Amino acid sequence: MLENQPINPLNNYNYNQPFPSYKKWYQKKWGLAIIVFIIIVVLLLSLLVISTPGFLKSSASESGLIIDKITAANLLAQTPQRQLAEKLDRPHLGQVNAKLVIVEFSDFQCPVCQAEFPIIREVVSKYQNQILYIYRQYPIINENSALVSQASLCAHEQDKFWAMHDRLFLNPSSEYSTDNLKNIAQQAGLNLEQFNDCLTTEKYKNMVLEDTQDGFTLGIKGTPTFFINGNKLSGLISQDSWEKLLDQLLKY
């Protein structure tokens, strides 16, 4: 009986008809819409990053915007921002009574700070009779940053801050320990017994925390961040940009 025979679905199939074509997902309307959306998002994010201060090398100073913001009046004004940033018990170079005060908030572990280090040292050396430069701690890169900051301040109490500072930047490491910090301290000419006691007791932990809190209050989002008489400037700044900026400000 035919009713009991299995049905073969291929019996009525036309083998001469063309095989159906299927579009790939990115060829369909909804796929094209997704691609266009992704491109727009990437473009918008790119514009946002490029417009962020510090993204372009010395973007603020190169464009002259910082000079435009700083007038003779606000250059000399003793604002709360200046009072919070400019602390003379921190490591400093130059003239205490200088008209221009540059404060740097930095992290020894920060790659951009490491790139800026030889530039700002050269600038400070050139203008040391006309400016005051203050170095403050802002250890935010990793868990070792605070330890390295404390080590530098332990060197400061022995009047060896800059010797320690330079060696930390010239020999950067993401894995600083108490032992290799002791080795660097020895190279910098510190009394190791005094240094060891200072570091193991965390003598300057509160000072590092105070610097960090002050930086947060001042609106610092990354390192290095500089304040010129309270006016904020962030990112990697070329020596030429520094010199043009300082030459202009010293005329006020």
Automatic annotation (TrEMBL):
Give the matching SUPFAM superfamilies. Thioredoxin-like
Q: Which InterPro entries match?
A: Thioredoxin-like_fold, Thioredoxin-like_sf, Thioredoxin_domain
Q: Which domain of life is it from?
A: Bacteria
Q: Where is the signal peptide?
A: none
List the molecular function annotations (GO) for this entry: oxidoreductase activity
Keyword field contains Transmembrane helix: yes
Keywords for the protein's UniProt record, in alphabetical order: Disulfide bond, Membrane, Oxidoreductase, Redox-active center, Signal, Transmembrane, Transmembrane helix
All copies of the Thioredoxin domain together span 73-251
Q: Which residues cross the membrane?
A: 30-50
- Please give the family membership noted in the entry: Belongs to the thioredoxin family. DsbA subfamily.
Protein name from the UniProt record: Thioredoxin domain-containing protein
Question: What species is this protein from?
Answer: Candidatus Buchananbacteria bacterium RIFCSPLOWO2_01_FULL_39_33
The lineage, from the top, is: Bacteria, Candidatus Buchananiibacteriota
